[in-house]
Amino acid sequence: MSHTIWVVAERIPSGVTRATKELLGKAQGLAGGDASRVAAVVLGTGGEALAPILHEAGAGNVLALEDARLDAHRVESAATALAALAEGRKPFVILLPATVNGRELGAALAVDLGGGVVQECVEISIEGETVVGRRGVFGGNLTADVENRSPGPKVLTVRPKVFPLPPARSGGGGFEKIAPAFDDKDARARVLELVSEAGKAVNLEDADVIVSGGRGLGGPEGFKILHELAEVLGGAVGASRAVVDAGWIPYPHQVGQTGKTVKPKLYVACGISGAIQHLAGMRTADTIVAINKDAAAPIFKVAHYGLVGDLFQIVPLLTAEFRKALKG
Amino acid sequence: MKAIVCVKEVPETPEGVRVTEEGSLAPREDASFLIDPIGPYAIETALQLRDKKGGSVVVLSVGSKRAEKILKESAFAVGADDAFLLSDAALEGGDPHATARVLAAAVAKAGGADLILCGDRAADDNASTVGPALGRLLGWPVLTSVAEVIDFDPDGGKIRVARALESGREIVEAALPAVVTVIKGIYQPRYPSLLGIRKAAKREVPVWTAADLGLDPASVGASGSPTRVRKLSPPPPPGAVEMLSGEPEATAAALVAKIMDAKIL
Asked: Which of A146, A289, A304 sits opposite B239 (nearest CB)?
């Protein structure tokens, strides 16, 4: 049986998101390297221009649901259009990036298809007719293997930055333009405006580097040296719940928010002792550096490198050393 | 104006959570259960809208009999008008989709609403699914990850919200009735008053079973769930930490050298 795997592309002004390409790479793996079994689905106008990017990332086919009404993504019309297409063509698996919009669309699409969604997978495996998604639960304290037993297409959302960017594939692929099926009852919500916060938005889940601070900073002004280190590393500034609760830094900076985990390449914990919720939220980082004056702090149990000492001395030194090292 | 809020009971995390060797969740007699931490934010949002527009707030929860406690302490005690517990052996073990079906039936039995509020993500399954699934089952607009209600106009049948996306704030307007899932920080939940707590203790929480809701038992609970948790596992044990000691200048340089050599950046 030749199962096809769809990836619903997530669009940005410059093309598609990195996560879309990661999913196409994973989809190709699940299809045994057979790109003819991988299709990218694009919603809205201008899909044809994206086809070469999607082919290169692993899609043997590009299906474009071309309609200007789908440009301002609202989940209702997108779900209806995708479900109608999927009911006709019966893909085995439909993957979406596990972003806010991707999770919303994944759940709605699964309902329309009479099945269920497995959200925020970090691994996917196909066992015969069953698809199993691995995901974090209880705020990352446990890992669950969840079977998607939906009778029709199995919908899963996949965390960005879990799978690598696929190598560029040559050979092009198919492109098909399809008029989507949906009606006005799906248009009862509309996007008025997107206030971009690029540059100033705190997006810990996407950050490659997070420099995070806790009570050891002594007060809100302590974050200054963390911002400096984060800037040199091109990273974001995080914080423990204790200091967010104390009002030293706003909530979006909190690591270990309910159910959220971060997965940067480098996590630098400064003056954070390591409450259990915090550890659950950040232990998924690839490399963890902990700086704390208390050698018995729980943070050192999950760290790869530990520095015991005064963070006000060490952090500026790290900033200077990294600045030197990264210049070369 | 009528708002319905959906909340759930969760075990205290992670202290109340254990996994057996076979990979299922171990029952722990002494685990404490509380309202999902996002629940009070959804309730508070409904109360704020009621304060401005009048009307009523109804709170629903799918769970065991034990969840009566959270409905008294977190719904009645802060001034919810009504609360119903959706509880039945047939409902046990349901995934988010089965739970959404139960809630959809309960919303109908409660006479519908202008607005349904849920938490964006629960502390136990972290699934972010019940809200959008419920909206889709009802055929209502779905607005997830809402950080602010900018305008709520039940008479005009409209709501305008700000959603927190990865790329910024998205302003969306939707026709009512609609389903909204809220994130923390939307409104600070109020504390119950002593009088509120005393009154709440005396109130009964009506229980609706699958039969009361007109639900086929096969369509809900474990048997009605399209997804199933096969196995739970604890996180892998941490590796050994490498401690760097000495003068701050030397340790900082040594750490940077190790990070650069490992090509982490």
From this structure: A304
Q: Which segments of chain A belong to CATH 3.40.50.1220?
A: 209-327
Select the residue from B13, B146, B220 to test the A interface by mutation, using most A Cβ atoms within 10 A. B13
pTM of the shown model: 0.87
| CA–CA distance, B146 with B237 (Å, rounded to integer) | 36
Domain span holding position B74 = 2-224
Phi, psi for residue A9 in degrees, rounded to 5: -70, 140
Amino acid identity of residue B2, one-letter, is K
Domain with CATH 3.40.50.620 in chain A: 5-186
Tell me the mean pLDDT per 10 residues along chain A, length 328: 87 92 96 95 95 96 94 86 96 96 97 97 93 89 92 95 90 94 81 73 82 96 96 94 88 75 92 88 91 93 94 96 89
Cα dist from A256 to A10, A170, B42, B258, whole Å: 26, 41, 20, 27
Interchain CB distance below 8 Å, A107 and B96: yes
Q: Say if CB B56 and CB B81 are below 8 A apart.
A: yes
Which residues have a Cβ under 8 Å from the Cβ of B120 and sit 6 or more positions away? B38, B128, B131, B144, B145, B146, B181, B182, B183
Question: Å from B58 to nearest chain A CA?
Answer: 24
A257 chain-B contacts, CB cut-off 8 A: 184
**B190 found inside a domain:** yes
Q: Is residue B236 part of a domain?
A: no
> Residue B103: CB partners within 8 Å, gap ≥ 6?
B6, B60, B62, B86, B130, B134
CATH code for the part of the protein at A209-327: 3.40.50.1220
CATH of domain A5-186: 3.40.50.620
- The answer to whether residue B233 is domain-embedded is no
Tell me the nearest-neighbour CA distance from A243 into chain B, angstroms.
15
CB contact under 8 A, B265 and A116: no
CATH number where B29 lies: 3.40.50.620
Contact status of B28 with chain A (Cβ, < 8 Å): no
Backbone torsion region of residue B154, taken as left when φ is above 0, otherwise alpha when ψ lies between -120 and 50, otherwise beta: alpha
What ipTM was predicted for this assembly?
Answer: 0.92
CA dihedral A40, A44, A47, A49 (to 10 degrees): -140
